[in-house]
Structures are given as C-alpha cells and as structure tokens.
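Figure 6 in text form: structure in, sequence out.
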C-alpha cells in the first residue's frame, strides 16, 4: 500500500468517528499500521475534523519519527505504536473520549458482561486498567499509557477483547485495520451505555452466566462459528 492509500484509509476512519458521534472538536484519533513498510499513519495533533484533509495525516516509523507529513502527529502516537509493537495481530487503533465509555473510565470500573449484546463482541468484561503512578505520569506519559494497557492483557487475548478503558482517561479499541478499530469503538460506546442503564435500573445486576456468554461469543468468533454467511 502506498503512503497516499494508507493516509486515505486513516482519514476516512477518522471521519467515521465524527459520523458516528464518537468525537467532538479535536477529540480522538485513529491510526493504521503498514507492517511491511514498518510505518503507522495517524491523525495530526489538534486538527479539527471539519478542516482535516487526507494529506494532513502523518506517517511515522516504529520509533515515532515522522516519515511523511508537515504536521505533528497525535499526542497519543506513542500509545498507538506501543500497541502495534505488543499486539502482532492488530492493524488499526482508535482512541476516543466517547461519553459512556469515558464515564466508566472516570469511575475506574471495568464493564461487566451483563447481556448477550456485550457477549457477541467481547469474551468477558471490558477491562479498566490500573492507575498510573505519579512517576509514570511525569515520565514518558503516552508510552506509559500504552504499557498500562498491555499490562492488562498479559493473560488475555487482545483479539477476544479488542477494547479497553484506561482508568481516569478514556477508551482505546483496535482491530484488523483502522476501519474495524472504529467499528469496535462504536460497539464499545453502545455496550457502555447499555451497562450504565442496566446498573441504573438495578445496581446489583449480575453478570451474564458463563455458558450464555461463551455461546454468544463463540458462535460468532469460535472455530465452529455459525453466525452470518460463509
């Protein structure tokens, strides 16, 4: 894929965030990696969606050096790059401050699997990370945020739970490419909203029983999946 094609795909994925009402003003960013070239294309820092153009997308290498582009890349670039380095199977990363997912992050609570909508897309709870220490915040903050996420996945398959909420911060999602990472961001926001409403109606609502959780996840994503068309 040429840089022009890569930047176009990342631009379109970023614009989809706005279309899905997952961002306002300059909130959020989407990236995509070209592993053959060893580069990542990502939204420029602080540029509004109303004025951004495909050529504004910035391309960096895996050492966070600008390869192509006249603007500074997103301030979250080091987080994205760390995720690509750590999760071999992902091709796109999205970061938003969508309302309900961010509310769970600010409450520093993981989102329990309360129903089959959640179970269709995530095998278990949506993890809220641990807090960063003051030393980490005052150090290489964006890199430490990436480490904060990957630490939460030491015993978990990132593709079985392609979304996380960062304590006190906001969500990150990922997928096979930029477009799928945005799709997961939209799913996360809806799941977070449903969970909030459920816990508002019943603060003691119990997680879905494991057998139903497994059935709904595996019928879509397991080796013998039968949901959809071949």
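Output sequence:
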């Amino acid at each position: 894929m040429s840089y022009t094609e890569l930047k176009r795909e990342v631009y379109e994925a970023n614009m989809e965030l706005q279309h899905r009402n997952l961002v306002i003003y300059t909130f959020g960013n989407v990236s995509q990696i070209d592993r053959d070239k060893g580069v990542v294309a990502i939204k420029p820092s602080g540029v509004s969606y109303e004025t951004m153009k495909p050529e504004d997308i910035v391309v960096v290498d895996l050492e966070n050096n600008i390869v192509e582009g006249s603007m500074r890349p997103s301030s979250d670039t080091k987080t994205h790059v760390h995720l690509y380095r750590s999760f071999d199977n992902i091709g796109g990363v999205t970061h938003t401050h969508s309302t309900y997912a961010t509310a769970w992050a600010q409450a520093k609570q993981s989102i329990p699997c309360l129903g089959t909508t959640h179970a269709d897309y995530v095998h278990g709870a949506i993890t809220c990370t641990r807090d960063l220490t003051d030393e980490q915040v005052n150090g290489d903050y964006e890199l430490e945020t990436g480490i904060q996420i990957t630490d939460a996945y030491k015993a978990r398959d990132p593709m079985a739970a392609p979304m996380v909420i960062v304590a006190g911060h906001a969500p990150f999602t990922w997928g096979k490419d930029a477009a799928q990472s945005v799709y997961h961001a939209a799913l996360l926001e809806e799941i977070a909203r449903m969970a909030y409403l459920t816990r508002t109606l019943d603060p003691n609502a119990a997680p879905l029983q494991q057998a139903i959780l497994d059935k709904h996840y595996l019928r879509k994503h397991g080796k013998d999946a039968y949901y959809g068309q071949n």
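Caption detail: Strands lie at 29-34, 39-42, 58-61, 66-68, 92-95, 163-165, 171-175.
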